[in-house]
Amino acid sequence: MEIDRKELKHQAKERIALTDPKFWVVALTYIAMTTGVSWLVSLIPLPTAGASSLPFLDMLQSFLQLLLRFYTTVVQFGLCLWALWTYRQLDPGLNSLMQGFSVAGRVLLMELGISVRILGWYFFISLALILPFTALLMSPANYAVGMTCAFLIFFILVIVFITLLLRYALAPYLLADRPDDGPSAPIYRSVSLMRGWKFELFKLEFSFIGYDLINFILAGLVLFFFVGQAGLLNGADLTDLAWWDQLFYVLYSPPAVILSTLVTIPVNLLLLPYRAVARAGFYDARMLAAQQEIRLPNMPPL
What is the C-alpha separation between 183 and 194, in angstroms, rounded? Predict the structure, then answer.
């Protein structure tokens, strides 16, 4: 089973070109609603969390981060709605990004259910892979074999994690189509629909790697500039923990984070709607294939 990725991406590009407001306006609004709001929250002045007179600050910061995560999840669901309606040529507007808040409880419960399942399966598989090799990895006589096994296990775990993500990838679109079914039904249906189709979705997602590489290079150049300005490239000692502390301080400083994000916005104005609508197209193609499979008559036994 496979899909015509070139045709699917061609349709996605055609349909985002017909949107009103323009797709780049939707993408810019989405970035402002997610990354922009995150920056604003980070600018909220809070006293030092370790102050003895304010022991609740750690809890307050954790609460703000959790609230921000919930908000971002619902806005991401709104982008799924916009993408699905765009692919179906239903002329969605900017208000579609806010439609997720009408079913925010179901969205959050669905995402929580997906996260629990991914973490559960990942933990179980990790134990099943790591425990048999623990003694081998700790044995000095088999150091080379142990290191090879360690890299092999790491590679397998990466594949497992990607597979689990793909397993539940269609759940948001299923919830968008039938929100009255509740938060659990889309999860089970996604598992069923993605059976045998995970590699097809992976190939579609991987086909956008060029845009991701451009973003990576642009952000990397900005961070490289800041590291150079801090003088960390002269006489760098990778074994010096103090050097690493300074490096991370520079990389996560507000100017470096903000500028490295801003330089990727021109690419993301196309990439975000393009990728989202292509995913919605994959969902519709999979739903159509599933309906055709159901309609096929059972052949009599020979």
Answer: 18
Q: What single DSSP character describes residue 301?
A: P
**What number is the average pLDDT over the span 112-120?**
95
Q: What is the DSSP letter of 290?
A: H
Query: Residues 127, 130, 135, 139: what is their CA dihedral angle, to the nearest 10 degrees?
Result: -150
Q: What percent of the chain has pLDDT over 70?
A: 85
Structure-token pair, residue 261: 């994000």
Determine the structural domain holding residue 173 and report its residue range.
5-207+264-294
Class of residue 128 by CB neighbours under 10 A (exposed 0-12, middle 13-18, buried 19+) = exposed
Cis peptide before 255 (omega within 30 of 0): no
Residue 227 lies in a domain: no
H and E: helices and strands count for the chain: 14, 0
Query: pLDDT (tens digit, 9 = 90+) per residue, 179-236?
Result: 988 899 999 999 999 999 999 999 999 999 999 999 999 999 999 998 888 887 776 6
> In angstroms, rounded to a whole number, what is the distance separating the alpha carbons of residues 86 and 273?
9
pLDDT of residue 127: 85
Element of type H or E holding 215: helix 209-229
Structural domain count of the chain: 1
